TrEMBL record:
<dbReference type="InterPro" id="IPR038414">
    <property type="entry name" value="CcoP_N_sf"/>
</dbReference>
<feature type="binding site" description="covalent">
    <location>
        <position position="226"/>
    </location>
    <ligand>
        <name>heme c 2</name>
    </ligand>
</feature>
<keyword id="KW-0479">Metal-binding</keyword>
<feature type="binding site" description="covalent">
    <location>
        <position position="229"/>
    </location>
    <ligand>
        <name>heme c 2</name>
    </ligand>
</feature>
<keyword id="KW-0375">Hydrogen ion transport</keyword>
<keyword id="KW-0406">Ion transport</keyword>
<dbReference type="InterPro" id="IPR036909">
    <property type="entry name" value="Cyt_c-like_dom_sf"/>
</dbReference>
<keyword id="KW-0249">Electron transport</keyword>
<feature type="binding site" description="covalent">
    <location>
        <position position="142"/>
    </location>
    <ligand>
        <name>heme c 1</name>
    </ligand>
</feature>
<dbReference type="InterPro" id="IPR032858">
    <property type="entry name" value="CcoP_N"/>
</dbReference>
<keyword id="KW-1133">Transmembrane helix</keyword>
<keyword id="KW-0813">Transport</keyword>
<feature type="binding site" description="axial binding residue">
    <location>
        <position position="271"/>
    </location>
    <ligand>
        <name>heme c 1</name>
    </ligand>
</feature>
<keyword id="KW-0812">Transmembrane</keyword>
<feature type="transmembrane region" description="Helical">
    <location>
        <begin position="58"/>
        <end position="77"/>
    </location>
</feature>
<dbReference type="GO" id="GO:0005886">
    <property type="term" value="C:plasma membrane"/>
</dbReference>
<dbReference type="GO" id="GO:0009055">
    <property type="term" value="F:electron transfer activity"/>
</dbReference>
């Protein structure tokens, strides 16, 4: 804050304080010629009268005490321009102190799970409850409170995993995020006709009834271009994030128009990294919860205290 603005704010605050004191003093005193408290010239309906009684002195004094309190507050805490206050308090310092206290509590709560394998953590009912809470706060925005996802956001309760569903891979996805890119292929495939043929062939891979001639032509194009990511059997490649095209699980929709759009315009999906948001231990706990949604732990263990 510049010196000019600081002086301006201090002047405004001082003027308001002085104005409040003057207003209380001016309106609270009695002047020569004022009517007595029991005198009035305002009468309604013959017996309703308005008296000229000032506020009790103790009430006026409470207003003065409030002003003194306000001045003391401005001395102790920031409020007078660039003056930081004699107490040294700042909202940032209080925020950091409260954050550190909360982080210490969380560290104690999650300490038993530090470094443990995901499938081991998934056997602890208490850990799964903690993971469910973390998921609700950080993951449900995209994947839904039931973890069943939505268009463009994968269902975490099935067994179809774009990047792999083993415990270590799920943890890596939570910690460091993923970025899946499907490039637009319309020009490479020879225009709209080529896109149509490949879209029809891709539909046929999951058992949808299609035009056999278009599907055969689409297979030829698929085998020349798309196999690089999705493989000759079209079952995908988790190392690249290329999905299996032979099941009935579709991230962006399995109808003809959705598949055609994916091929012609491409797709770009991003799973943000949560290492810096959650830390490794909490990421392990929520990863264990996510993994447990599609995997049954072999042998439950006693919950951690």
């Amino acid at each position: 804050m510049s010196t000019g603005w600081s002086i301006y704010i201090i002047a405004i605050v001082a003027l308001n304080i002085v104005g409040c004191v003057w207003l209380l003093w001016w309106t609270g005193k009695r002047r020569p010629g004022d009517p007595a408290p029991t005198d009035t010239s305002h009468v309604w309906d013959g017996d309703l009268t308005e008296y000229n009684k000032p506020m009790p002195r103790w009430w006026i004094n409470l207003f003065y005490i409030t002003i003194v309190f306000g001045i003391g507050y401005l001395v102790l805490y920031p409020g007078l321009g660039a003056f930081a206050g004699t107490s040294g308090w700042t909202s940032a310092r209080q925020h950091d102190a409260e954050r550190d206290a909360r982080e210490a509590t969380l560290a104690t709560t999650f300490a038993p799970y530090g470094g443990q394998p995901i499938d081991t953590i998934a056997q602890d009912p208490h850990a799964l409850e903690l993971g469910r809470s973390i998921f609700a706060n950080h993951c449900a925005t995209c994947h839904g409170s039931s973890a069943r996802g939505a268009r463009g956001y994968p269902d975490l309760t099935d067994t179809s995993w774009q990047w792999g569903g083993d415990p270590d891979t799920v943890l890596a996805t939570v910690l460091d995020g993923r970025e899946g890119i499907m490039a637009p292929w319309e020009q490479v495939l020879g225009g709209p006709r080529g896109v149509t043929e490949v879209a029809v062939y891709v539909q046929s891979l999951s058992g949808t009834a299609t035009d056999p001639a278009l599907a055969r032509a689409g297979k030829t194009r698929f085998d020349g271009i798309c196999v690089a990511c999705h493989g000759r059997d079209a079952k995908g490649n988790p190392a690249l994030g290329a999905p299996d095209l032979t099941d009935r699980v579709w991230l962006y929709g399995g109808d003809y128009e959705s598949i055609r759009t994916s091929i012609s315009q491409g797709r770009h999906g991003v799973m943000p990294a949560h290492r810096g948001i959650l830390g490794e231990t909490r990421a392990r706990v929520v990863a264990a919860y996510v993994w447990s949604l599609s995997n049954t732990p072999k042998q439950p263990v006693a919950a951690s205290p």
